[in-house]
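Hey everyone, long-time lurker, first post.

I ran two proteins through the pipeline my lab uses and got sequence/structure pairs for each. Pasting them in order. The first:
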Amino acid sequence: MKPRSLVDGAALAAALAPLVYAALRVGARLLGPEPDPAAMLWTERSSTLDRLSLTLYATALTGSACVAIARKFADRMDSIVLAACAVSATALFAQGALAP
């Protein structure tokens, strides 16, 4: 395995992290209402930290697929990462506008 494919795969996984976060946030919003923010300040566990840790875990799981994509399409990784950034930004904006 080339070290460049590991770097490209990591870049692709990092570019897809906001998309994963937006998908998890919309999924949580569809499954139930968000608790009262004032009550959340005084709890021992924050749902925000739970969502961020779940996003990190899900992004790490997609990392191996991203490395495989980087190995297969090594010559086009610049445009693939750029497209992934655009899709992730659009998904994060849509999530923030439609399901805050």
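...and the second, right after it:
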Amino acid sequence: MNVRVMLIEPSSNPKAFNVVVLIGKNPYDFTVTVETDKIAEQEIQITNGDDFFCQTFQFNQIVGVEICKLVSKIYNHQVVELPVDVGEFYSEELESASLQKVS
């Protein structure tokens, strides 16, 4: 099934984003946070999905990383044209993650 990011919008927390993703024809809502930290005098950004995001993409981390990259771009005020296809998700992965559809 195709995975498509439909919406990334800031939440009430300035470092958190609401992300709507279509997996096949089913929409799923996630929260992704962006934090900045300093390591060896270099600032780095760390993106983290909520527990549902981590559970959903535990068997397809490449798709999860692509979603986090898009969130990071928006956090950095770069232009992202949505919707964006970010990969393929297989039905076995959905069953393994025991997802519940968000309406």
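Reply from user beta_strand_b:
Welcome! Quick read of the second one: The longest helix spans residues 61-75. The beta strands are 2-10, 16-23, 26-39, 42-49, 84-88.
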